[in-house]
Specification:
Order of helices and strands: HHHHHHHH
Shape: elongated
Oligomer: single chain
Helix content: 55-70%
Structural class: mainly alpha
Radius of gyration: 19 Å
Number of helices: 8
Amino acid sequence: MTVNRPNELKPTVAGRRRFRWRGLAAAVLWAPALVVSLFSPRPAMESFWFTMTADSLAWALFVTGAAFRFWATLYIGGRKDKTVAFEGPYSLCRHPLYFGSLLLMGSMVLFLRSLVLALAWGIVYLFYTLGTIPIEEQALLTRFGDAYLEYRERVPRLWPSLRRFHTRQRIELDVHALRLECARASRWIWLPLYAEVITRLQRAAWWPHWFQVW
């Protein structure tokens, strides 16, 4: 079932292309800020309590982001392109995978205490919310029609609403989708280790500081 509304257009060819390369585009936006942070000095004044608070928040974002990505994969893997997923993490927000990815990136901002990375995080956030997500939702509306329109009007786009949570006792598990997510996790699961290595390099006397920004 589809709906024809003047404000709900099918994704353009350019839009589909931007969506297909969304991961690479986000990496291009993120990588320069990471390089600047790598070759910048560590913030000089970090008290014990500031360090403990920042690291605790970083770990909280990392664990929550990882949990959202795996949780969403369990729910969407067996039903992607077949029906509207509206249970579990998809009852909290419409795009829990993107939400998890943004939390993972936010954890790096806190691990490295980098204002440059914080700015890059904001740019990536706008890239997803203003570019990628609308294109994806147009495609889903074209595919699922009123079912997705009703879901979109009821569930928040990106930031979870806990009071809306509901699920069922059994779900269909797609082992292939879970394997793909584990392959992706092999890249981001090391983020805390990367942050620790970068921190040690920043503090080393021999490490070059080409940029004087945090």
